[in-house]
From TrEMBL:
<feature type="domain" description="C-type lectin">
    <location>
        <begin position="153"/>
        <end position="269"/>
    </location>
</feature>
<keyword id="KW-1133">Transmembrane helix</keyword>
<dbReference type="GO" id="GO:0030246">
    <property type="term" value="F:carbohydrate binding"/>
</dbReference>
<keyword id="KW-1015">Disulfide bond</keyword>
<keyword id="KW-0812">Transmembrane</keyword>
<dbReference type="InterPro" id="IPR050111">
    <property type="entry name" value="C-type_lectin/snaclec_domain"/>
</dbReference>
<feature type="transmembrane region" description="Helical">
    <location>
        <begin position="35"/>
        <end position="58"/>
    </location>
</feature>
<feature type="coiled-coil region">
    <location>
        <begin position="76"/>
        <end position="138"/>
    </location>
</feature>
<dbReference type="InterPro" id="IPR033989">
    <property type="entry name" value="CD209-like_CTLD"/>
</dbReference>
<keyword id="KW-0175">Coiled coil</keyword>
<dbReference type="InterPro" id="IPR001304">
    <property type="entry name" value="C-type_lectin-like"/>
</dbReference>
<keyword id="KW-0472">Membrane</keyword>
<keyword id="KW-0430">Lectin</keyword>
<dbReference type="InterPro" id="IPR016186">
    <property type="entry name" value="C-type_lectin-like/link_sf"/>
</dbReference>
<dbReference type="InterPro" id="IPR018378">
    <property type="entry name" value="C-type_lectin_CS"/>
</dbReference>
<dbReference type="InterPro" id="IPR016187">
    <property type="entry name" value="CTDL_fold"/>
</dbReference>
<dbReference type="Pfam" id="PF00059">
    <property type="entry name" value="Lectin_C"/>
</dbReference>
Amino acid sequence: MEMANFHDASARSRGLKTCTGKDGKGMKGQIFHRWVAVSFCLLCILQAALNITLRLALSVGSNCKNLSDVKEEWKRINTTLQLNSFTKELDNLQKQLNFNASQKTVLAKERDELKRKLDDFTSQKTVLAKERDELKRKLDDFIHYSQKGWVYFSGSFYYVSSTQKTWTESRDDCLEQNADLMIINSKEEQNFSRQFQKVMWLGLSDRETEGVWKWVDGTVLTERFSFWSSGEPNNYNGRNEDCGMIWYYNTEDSWNDGVCENENFWICEKKMAL
C-alpha cells in the first residue's frame, strides 16, 4: 500500500519536474528538435513556393515571349497579305493601263483612218466639184457652139465658113472663137471633112521651113495621116504654095498646097471631149 503510493508520488514528482523545467536539459532538447522540424518544414514550404514562383515566372516569360513572337508573326503575315493585295492591285492597274494604252492606240488609228477618209472625201469632193464645173462649162460650150451652127464629131466641134478669106485671116477668125483651123488625125476625120463638099483651108503649112509641114498646134505631119493628092505638094509653076487645103474633096486623098494669100473657105475645130 505504501509502496504503491510511493510509486505514484515518484511519477508525479517527475511529471512536475518536467512541467516546471526543473529537468532543464531534457526540456531544451525537445524544444530544439521541434524548432528544427518546424524550420525544415518552413524551408520546404519556401522552397516549394520559390519553385512555383520560378516556374510561374518562367512560364509567364515564355508565354510573353511566345505572345511577342505571335504578334510579330501576325504583323509579318498581315504585312505579307497587304503586300500581296497591293501587288495584285498594282498588277490590275498595270493591266488596265496597258488596256487603256492599247485602246488609245486603236482609237488613234481609227481617228487617223477617219481623218484620212475625211481628207479623201474632201479631195474627192473637190475633184467632183471641178469635174462638175468642167462638165457645166462643156455643156455651156456645147449649147453655145450648137446654137451657132457648129457640128460635133468625135470629140470636137467644127465650123465651116460661108465666106472666103486668106489662110491667115481664116485662122484669126477661128482663134477669135476659141478654136483653130482643123487638124486631121485620122482617116475618119479626113472623111468627115470631105462631106462639106468645099475647098477649105486646113490648119497645115510649111511657112516656117520649106518642105516641113506642120499643124497649127506645132506637131509635124506624119505619113501615117497624110492625105495629099497625087503629086502634091508641088509649088505648082514655081508658086510659093505654103498652106494646105482640101481641094479634091471627091477623093480620099484630097489635099493640095496653095498660095496662103489666096482666099478660100475654111473649117475651124474646137476640141471638146464629152
